[in-house]
Write a structure and sequence with these properties.
Blueprint: E1 8-12, H1 17-28, E2 32-37, H2 40-54, E3 58-62, H3 70-79, E4 87-90, H4 105-133, E5 137-141, H5 154-173, E6 180-184, H6 193-197, H7 211-223, E7 228-229, H8 233-244, H9 247-260
Parallel strand pairs: 1-2, 1-4, 2-3, 4-5, 5-6, 6-7
Helix pairs in contact: 1-2, 1-7, 3-4, 4-5
């Protein structure tokens, strides 16, 4: 297992939820950090907390990765810091529930840019340096939604399927180089994500894990070079069943569940 002490990690979406916990736990392990999100006040407060508590270097770069050119801008701003990035943690993302025909087109475009384009741009930009040094890697936060189509969350699930597929392919490309790529696929995690997506808590609460526990499991999997990590026994069972069930039956069942939950609006 490769340690994090003395390395440097770029964490996107670090101001809340899983991203915040990943940043905290990386600092606990001695990693220096570059924190990015849209909220400067939250990032500055977190940076001060982690630097004082763990005696690591923490830098803040404010960026909106959902905006056109946002990922490229972040790459340029990080380059300007004059430091090497050993780990890229692509955590930033958001979802939305409802029928595609009624969705806000601009919001959908932002979702694809943030959930997919930013992951590719940041990975492509920082990967060559990792390969040259023969260490580090990319931790991409996907979702259990990646394992099946989801009517009434069609774009979100598709973006996470992209992240999962991209991560698995990239992991094979860098195999044997000392660099690793992991897709972390959480199930329900009590964060601000659900409220932003317009999702009310439902029966899936039985599969919920805390952001802290999710980050802990994800970093452990990344540390040993696992390609895919699904935290939680219930979530792992769900992903296995989604692979075994006929796609038409699975999609129909999800559609019914979304309608009953009131998310199919």
């Amino acid at each position: 297992m490769e340690g994090f002490f003395g390395t440097r990690a770029l964490v996107t979406g670090a101001s809340s939820g899983i991203g915040l916990e990943l940043a905290r736990q990386l600092a606990t392990r001695g990693a220096n950090l570059i924190l990015t999100a849209r909220s400067k006040d939250k990032l500055d407060a977190l940076a001060q907390e982690l630097a004082q508590m763990h005696r690591v270097e923490v830098q803040v770069v404010v960026a909106d990765l959902a905006a056109p050119g946002g990922a490229e801008g972040l790459c340029a701003d990080v380059d300007a810091l004059g430091v090497s990035v050993d780990h890229v943690v692509n955590n930033a993302g958001f979802g939305d529930a409802g029928a595609l025909s009624k969705a806000d087109a601009a919001k959908l475009a932002e979702m694809v840019r943030l959930n997919c384009e930013a992951v590719v741009v940041l990975s492509r930009h920082f990967l060559p340096g990792m390969l040259e040094r023969g260490r580090g890697g990319v931790l991409n936060v996907a979702s259990t939604a990646a394992f099946q189509p989801m009517p009434f969350m069609a774009v979100y699930a598709a973006t996470k399927a992209f992240v999962l597929s991209f991560s698995a392919a990239l992991a094979r490309e860098v195999e044997g180089s000392g660099v690793r790529v992991t897709a972390l696929c959480p199930g329900p995690v009590p964060t601000g994500f659900q409220a932003a997506a317009g999702i009310e808590p439902g029966v899936e609460r039985i599969a919920a894990l805390s952001a802290e526990r999710t980050a802990e499991i994800g970093l452990a999997a990344y540390g040993v070079g696992d390609t895919v990590c699904v935290p939680g026994a219930v979530n792992r069972v769900q992903t296995v069943l989604s692979k075994l069930a006929p796609r038409g039956l699975l999609t129909s069942a999800i559609s019914v569940a979304m309608k009953r939950s009131g998310r199919a609006k």
